[in-house]
Amino acid sequence: MKVASLTTFQTDPASFYAWLHPLMQSILAAKPNKAHFALAKLAAKGIIKTIITQNIDFLHQRAGTIDPIEVHGSLEQFECIQCHTSINYQDDQIKRYLLNGAIPKCPDCKRVLKPAITLFEEMLPINAWEKAYSACTQADLVIAVGTSLEVYPVNLLPELALKQSSNLIINTLSSTHLDKAAAVVLPYDVIQVWQKIQAAFD
Ligand SMILES: [Zn+2]
After folding, report:
1. Distance 79 CA to ligand 1 centre (A)
2. Residue 1 has pLDDT above 80, yes or no
3. Are 162 and 144 spatial neighbours (Cβ–Cβ below 8 Å)?
4. Is the pLDDT of residue 165 over 90?
5. Does the model's pTM come out above 0.85?
6. Is the confidence at residue 102, as pLDDT, over 80?
7. Residue 50: what are its φ and ψ, rounded to 5°?
8. Pairing with 22, which of 31, 38, 75, 202 sits 20 to 30 Å away (CA)?
9. Where do the domains of the chain lie, and which CATH numbers do they carry?
10. pLDDT tens for residues 38-90?
11. Ligand 1: distance of its center to the CA of 26 in Å?
12. What is the DSSP letter of 182?
């Protein structure tokens, strides 16, 4: 069984939280890059209407983007499946977990908290998915950045945009199955590309 699954979380939270520990540490140690900052500036100017991410590292927020749509959730919040109380990653309980592995518990009902990320066996967060779906069907232009478009069902979003006859630009180093359908393919480093695009709007 996959450790990053709902079953492991529910039946063996110790193994689940042992697995999460190094991942959480590396995500918190990560810093937003120049592409994250460029996207945040373009979003703040209204040039980019919506940022959708499948990453759980909340680096877009840390770069200043307000409310990106996180279709796989993120490790910014930990929530109680029972009573829906949630705590932020900066809460003392998460600090203790990072320090000594103590499993975070719901402050209200004392159940084990679940990181607000999509695990195997789980559906994508419905609100985020609906927002992403609606943004992609209404957009004039969808730009897929830094993704090889291999993760289902998020990879359906650019296809959806194409079906609604919006333009698709793909900016990733690897080739993707939608390269032929895209209006433009930018097989270059995302940091170089987005620094240039942002500079053009400065
Ligand atoms: Zn609770």
Report:
1. 8
2. no
3. no
4. no
5. yes
6. yes
7. -145, 135
8. 38
9. 1-30+73-117 (3.30.1600.10), 32-72+124-202 (3.40.50.1220)
10. 999 999 999 999 999 999 999 999 999 999 999 999 999 999 999 999 999 99
11. 27
12. S
Which residue do the tokens 């990733």 mark?
172
- Residue 74's closest CA among 92, 94, 90, 54? 54
| 22 C-alpha to ligand 1 centroid (Å) | 25
CA distance 56 to 125: 12
The Cα–Cα gap between 25 and 47 comes to 33
- Residue 72 among the catalytic residues: yes
Q: If you measure from the C-alpha of residue 27 to the centroid of ligand 1, how many angstroms do you get, rounded to a whole number?
A: 25
What is the full DSSP assignment across 39-104? HHHHHHTTSS---EE--SS-HHHHTT-SS-EETTEEEEEEE-TTT--EEETTSHHHHHHHHH-PPP
Marked catalytic residue, from 21, 60, 72, 84: 72
pLDDT category, 166, cuts 50, 70, 90?
Answer: confident
Q: What whole-number distance in Å separates Cα of residue 36 and Cα of residue 59? A: 7
pLDDT tens profile 4-14:
999 999 999 99
